[in-house]
Design brief:
about 230 residues, nine-stranded mixed sheet, single chain, alpha/beta
Length: about 230
């Protein structure tokens, strides 16, 4: 499949995106990687791709200057709703302040100023729906990553993996204030439809180490296969 990968932003994408490109190409995909999102506003160029992969943070919060323009937002919306695929990795589902409707596409995700996570570390990813196409060839596995909490979630998500966490108090935010984080089971991946398009959301994938986890790579590849089928 012909894939467009949008990268860039305040995350270690210089580590993770090369790994992403390598395993996508090794699986036989034709991959274009760019940090220039202007292509999203060019329908003639976008029509050449089967799916869009986001490994990027595009918000307009302080110190973030990569928010999508209105034409890019509209182009992305039309691309997906017309029947193309969208694979959204980690914090890529965080919307800019002027585009809260982005969560209608993704089914929800990170919200600046509200969402949080315990410190990066090792934990178990649980397969919660073994019949889901997203986990084909995958069983419970451990990874080094972040476990997102307090997300904005929409109805209609088909969750296929989760993570468990015990409650605790951890430093959080710019001032590293002690913040209570609840225990429980939290969604880590889901699928949904948007118009005629297919959307695959994977909350894993913070850094290069996360991307090198074999089961993470399998999940992404499953997502690409499903979103373009």
């Amino acid at each position: 499949m012909k894939l467009l990968v949008i990268s860039g932003g305040r995350h270690p994408y210089e580590e993770s995106t090369p790994v992403l490109g390598e395993f996508l190409r090794s699986a036989g995909h034709d991959v274009t990687i760019t940090e220039d999102a202007s292509v999203l506003g060019k329908p003639a160029d976008m029509n050449a791709y089967d799916a869009l992969v986001f490994n990027t943070l595009r918000t307009n919060s302080p110190n973030f200057e990569l928010a999508l323009s209105k034409s890019e937002q509209v182009g992305m919306n039309n691309f997906i709703s017309s029947g193309k695929g969208f694979v959204c990795i980690h914090i890529s589902g965080c919307p800019s302040d002027d585009w809260p409707e982005f969560h209608d596409i993704t089914g929800g995700g990170w919200v600046n100023g509200k969402s949080f996570h315990p410190p990066y570390g090792k934990y178990t990813v649980n397969v919660s729906n073994s019949k889901h196409v997203g986990v084909k060839g995958v069983v419970d596995f451990t990874t080094n990553d972040e476990l997102y909490m307090n997300l904005a979630l929409r109805e209609g998500n088909e969750v296929f993996i989760t993570g468990d966490a015990e409650s605790g108090t951890f430093p959080w935010g710019p001032k590293r204030q002690a913040t209570h984080m609840p225990g429980g089971t939290f969604p880590l991946g889901w699928t949904r439809n948007y118009g005629n398009g297919k959307v695959f959301v994977l909350l894993l994938g913070h850094d290069g180490q996360s991307f090198k986890t074999p089961d993470f790579q399998k999940l992404v590849l499953n997502g690409v296969d499903w979103a373009t089928s």
